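Morning F.,

Quick status update on the modeling queue. The single chain you submitted on Monday has been processed. Sequence for confirmation:
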Amino acid sequence: MRRPRPMSAVIARYMLAILVVTMLLGLALYSQVTRRILDQHAEQKSLVLAESVAANSSVRAAMAAGDGDHAVRGIAESIRAATGASYVVVIDRAGRRHSHPTEALIGEPIDEPVVALDGRNHVQVDHGILGPSANAKAPLRGPDGALIGEVSVGFTERDVSRALWAELPVLVLYTGAALLVGILASLVLARRLKRRTFGLELHDLASLLQEREAMLYGIREGVIAFDSAGRLTMANEEARRLLVLRRTAIGDPVEELVPPGRLRDLLSGDLGGQDQIVLTDTHLLVVNRMPVRVAGRDVGAVVTLRDRTELEALLRELDSVNGLTDALRAQQHEFSNRLHVLSVLVSLGESEEAMEYLSEISATSAGPAEDLRSRIAPTALAALLLAKITIAVERGILLEVTDDSRLDHPGPGPQALLTVVGNLIDNAMDAVAESAPPRTISVHLAYDDVARNILVRVTDSGPGVPPQLSEQVFQDGYTTKAPRAGVQRGLGLALVHRLVNQLGGHIEVSSGSGGATFTATLPSPTDADAGPVVSGGLR
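Structure tokens below.
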């Protein structure tokens, strides 16, 4: 297989060919223009000489006397020798020559009419005996002013060509110097291009492009690249989908791609770290940014984006199921003990006591549930609260719904309300988990008929939130807790914050001597658009 020529050699060869052709064309054009200028100069010089000879008093007197062959010949030849003209011919009215470089033609008539007898100068290219020449004819007048003939002066084309050839060495020298500079410039350009392409040849670049396209558009991860100035240079389809990028975004700085926040800081490199979690309006992303250096030079960075929305939702759902399973397992032991008591009472024949015991435990178990369902109209929300109460009991936490809680309004949507309440309770349980007993959580739910919004307030007995962190706790990825069972921390409050803001509501945190209080206000459906839930159902 024939080895491809190096890129530098190809560039140098093509540049050399272009320069040679250009220089040859320029040389030919310059020669043609110079020849035309020399012709015009010879014509003007011939006219000046012809007028000078025609104005010579000796020539005028000799021609008027009719005895001018010898005198006129000497003057004409001296002028021709001094000026370098090819010929100086003095002609009378009859067309007879009185001077000529060729002595045999003196006294001989000319072949054409004496055109200067019209009293005007004539400039032309004359095809005479000596060959083509730049010729000028001036009228010759006697002492009395009468027209007595003409003076014809010319420079042959051979003389003009000699003058042109005298100019060509300098022109060729300049052309050669320009060609040499062009060759050196092409070599420097080829070397610079090879350096900019890190020594890769054209076929290597083509192969890399094909491999890059196959790799970037064949993987499920989002991949974007930035140059050293922070401008977007590449983004595959998955990255465009996850970040909602325009097709024309290539070349835009990172500030124009995403709004201010944690995601922009990660893309720009202001925030570092591996496997950073970012919560957008629609996705939960794992972001990794890797600077790229080639040959010791910083050429930009590559960022990978993994969509963990569905996986995180499943992990959180599994965590909730595990919590419910532990709670149900504890209740199973409690119910087993109660069944043993009933079994013993029945076996002893204490039927009345067994019935009383059964009524007592039934009222104790069903009472709170019925009370909660009577005060909380959304069935799904009441079920969520009962489940959270059960899980809290298993963890040694007292979770209470305040007695003045009343909610008979559907709110902005069941899924949105469940997400807000569930995440706030989960955050409170994590906050009080490491606190000293008693560990308590209070949930207050209410609907404000005047403001037409739903109030959700969750208070815990944990360590609280310092005032300087009241905004930072709502940022995705911020957490003070250790990871648990593969569940990503720092998402619950960020998710609630995004959802509340998307619905047009408001959330804030305050701390007192007894822990932290999170208060969220959600508008009713008539005041806000109950659109899609943020993060695709992450809870």
